[in-house]
Specification:
Layout (H helix, E strand, L loop, with lengths): L2 H10 L1 H13 L2 H5 L4 E2 H8 L3 H13 L3 E3 L4 E4 L1 H4 L10 H7 L2 H4 L5 H7 L4 H6 L3 H7 L1 H25 L10 E5 L5 H9 L4 E6 L11 H4 L6 E5 L11 E5 L7 H14 L5 E6 L10 H12 L7 H10 L2 E7 L7 E7 L1
Parallel strand pairs: 4-5, 4-7, 5-6, 7-8
Antiparallel strand pairs: 1-3, 2-3, 8-10, 9-10
Length: 339
Amino acid sequence: MGDTQGKIMDLIFGRWRSQTLYAGVKLGIFDSLQNNSKKATVIAEDLGLDPKLTYRLLRALGSLELLDESTDQTFSLTEAGQFLRTDHPESLRGITLLEEGPHHYALWKHLPAMVQDGKQNAFVREFGCSAFEYAAQDTTYAEVFDGAMSSFSMIQSAWVLDALQAYDFSQIAHICDVGGGHGHLLCSFLAKYPHLRGTVLERESAIADYTKLWATKLGVGERCQYLAGDMFKAVPSADAYIMKMILHDWNNEECVQILDYQRKAATSGSRVFIAEHIIPGPNTPHFAKLFDIHMMCWGTGQERTQEEYKDLLERAGWKYMKTWFPSSGLIAVVEGLKV
C-alpha cells in the first residue's frame, strides 16, 4: 500500500481509534491504572469487566500508544495516557466523553444532508431542539457537556494567557468573562494580574454548584464575582470583555447582537477580547477547518477567519485592533476597541 493510500485508510478508520479511546475512558481504565502497573485480569476484576474482552481493549489502547503492554499482559499508562485520568490537571477525559459519546456521535450522519440542503444544525435534526435547549432538559447530557468544557478549559486558558503575554493590562481594572463557565479563564487572569477584578457572566444552572467554581480554588475569591444572566439580554459594565469559544457557537447575526450588548454596556475606551480558533488561508491544514464542520453539526455557529471576526466587530460598532497569536496552541485572541 502506498503512502497516499495509507493516509486515506487512516482517515477511513479514524473512528475506530476514537471509539476505542472512548471505551477506555468510559469504562474507567485510565483512572484504574493511574500511576500503577496492573495485569489485564486485575483491571477487569477491579472494573467489573469481562477479562478476555478487556485484554483485547487494553491491547488496542496500547496500539494507540496510550498504554504500555509487557509480555505478561501487564499494562501501565504512557505519557499520553496520563492526560485521560480524571485527576490530571490538564485532563482530556471530559472532552473525550462528549465528542465520542452517543449524542455527538449521532450528529455526523446528517452532514451530507446538511451540505445538500444548506441548513446546518444536526442537533435539531437528531433531537428536535438546539443543544442548549436539550441540555436544559437532559441532565445526563448537561453533565457531560459541562464536564467537557471544564476539561478543555484549563488547556485553553493557558493558550489565551500565552497569546496575551505581551499585552499591557495596566489600564484595565474590571474584566467580564461572558459565558465564562466555572471561571477558570477569568480567575487565571486575576491570579496573574493582582490589580484586576472580574465578573463571570453565565447561565444560572452552570454556576449553581459552588464547589465547581474556580475563584476560591485559585485564591481570587475576593476579586471575582459570578453573575447569573443572559448575554443576549444584558451584560454588566466593564473595562474589558473576554469570550473564549463563545462566538463560534452562533451565526453572524447572533454574534453581532452579543457584541452590540457589550459595546453598549462598556465604559469608554473598553476592549473586547475574542478567543477562538482562527481559520488560516487556503492549503494550510488546521484544526479550525475541521472544528468548523463540528460546529455545522452542533448548532448555528462556525469557525471564522481573522477578517470575518474583524467584520463582526465593525458591524457591532467596535474597532478592530489586532489579533494576538500564542507561541503554541490552537487559539488566538482578536482584540476590539470601543470608539
